[in-house]
Amino acid sequence: MDSQLIEIRTGGREAVVDLTDEIAAFLRSAGARDGLLNVWVPHATAGLAVIETGAGSDTDLLAALRDLLPADDRWTHRHGSAGHGRDHVLPALIAPSMSVPVLDGSTALGTWQSVCLVDTNGDNPVRSVRLSYLPG
């Protein structure tokens, strides 16, 4: 198994960050053929999603999360910035891990699919993502 921890800078704002380039580089360096890619976010306030990016879906996702998880004072968990408790609920809805099939050295995603980091927590401008390749 090959594994690598990558650092993603979100800039301290809500973000959906496309990991396609980082994943492709990792799979090349791992000499990947067929197998599984596991993606893991070791944070209590971020998750991973497979979505289309660049056509507004990433913005729509953040807007939907703002509607579903408002950044206000309703949350019991209250440390950090106002409404930070919602960030701790996020990984229950946007899972912190996923597995993606790898075929012939590339992810077997659909044409418009990208693996993305989803981060609503503006208190942490730098995130880690663990990529692990498991040969088939």
From TrEMBL:
InterPro entries: UPF0047_YjbQ-like, YjbQ-like_sf. Pfam families: YjbQ (PF01894). Gene3D superfamilies: YjbQ-like. It comes from the Bacteria. PANTHER family: UNCHARACTERIZED PROTEIN YJBQ-RELATED, UPF0047 PROTEIN C4A8.02C. Belongs to the UPF0047 family. This is Secondary thiamine-phosphate synthase enzyme.
